[in-house]
Amino acid sequence: MCQDCGCGDVNLVPLELQTRILARNDDQAAHNREHFLRQRVFAVNLMGSPGSGKTAVLEATARAFHDGKKLAAIAGDLATDNDAARLKRAGIRSRAIETGQACHLDADMVHHELHHLDLEGAEYLFIENVGNLVCPAVYDLGQNVNVVALSVTEGEDKPLKYPTMFAKADLVLLTKLDLLQYLPNTNLTKLYDALNRVMPEPRVIRVSAQDAVGVDRWVEWLAARRSALMGEAVPA
Amino acid sequence: MHEYSIIQSLVDSVAAAVGSRPGAAVHGVHVAIGDVAGVDCTLLATAYDVFRAGTLCENAALKIEKIPVRWECPRCNGEIATGGFLRCAFCDEPAFLASGDEIILERIELEVA
User: Fold this and answer.
1) Which of A55, A113, A217, B20 has the fewest CB atoms within 10 Å, counting from its CB?
2) What ipTM goes with this model?
3) Across residues A34-51, what is the average pLDDT?
4) Other Cβ atoms closer than 10 A to A69
5) How far apart are the first and last CA of chain B?
6) Cα separation of B67 and B35, whole Å?
7) What is each CA distance from A135 to A103, A132, A162, B63, in whole angstroms?
């Protein structure tokens, strides 16, 4: 209380902070990133709507690699370990994170799973985030790249509706390309127009996990980005 | 609804800041949220009202300053309009986000005896 005149007002002292509210998550993410680099593992935060084809793309990736030993995955969902089980069947060593009610993964959850996932010999870690185009964009996990899976059935204006997700993406995988023939009203020119308005450098690879279309280009993109980060020559 | 997680981190950040001043009561909490930070300010305020009960923020008002989006050309620093193609019409450089993704605890106000 004010001691000077007895007015009853409180004395307020401002304390300037200017700190990032998610600083603790960001510090943990930086720790995860160091861990990945030390293990020479390239970490991909794979995001997208529920049902956009994230798991199917990773299954197709495993088939393209032939040798699943180079791949590891952490799959996040509110409930069930179905996706991690699918990835294991595809030959990818995987762990599930059941988030309960949480709509996104955070750096702590990923760090916890890293203690249970042997990365020996792995070159890539795919962190399949909770299906959601909003919340996962906010949390750094320590990944090296953000990739968004967007299926052709979701509508051309999705990037305009969820700009934060796409603004943070290094690559958009346009999935379920095999369904495009059944979607006479879907115009990919409109989709590219929308991406240009939310992504400074839109990069898109069209894929169909069903028949492996575009998966070779996706694998080449991964290899080029990993080689650039690790300072290694791109494998032939 | 990641806004609840953000409020949890906010209250933790406030507690850490007040830690060095025992006995001080928190009167106000000022945050800055960018328009493309991926945070809904209405939901954030609701989450704060739910979560602050029983914490040291219980009697502290939350003030949210919204930070507008600004895309710029990295070469000429000219502003690139939001909603258009995010590439400089003069330099042909891809834009960078100069502001608008902030999730910042700016300051707190403490009541002191």
Assistant:
1) B20
2) 0.93
3) 96
4) 14
5) 38
6) 6
7) 6, 7, 10, 22
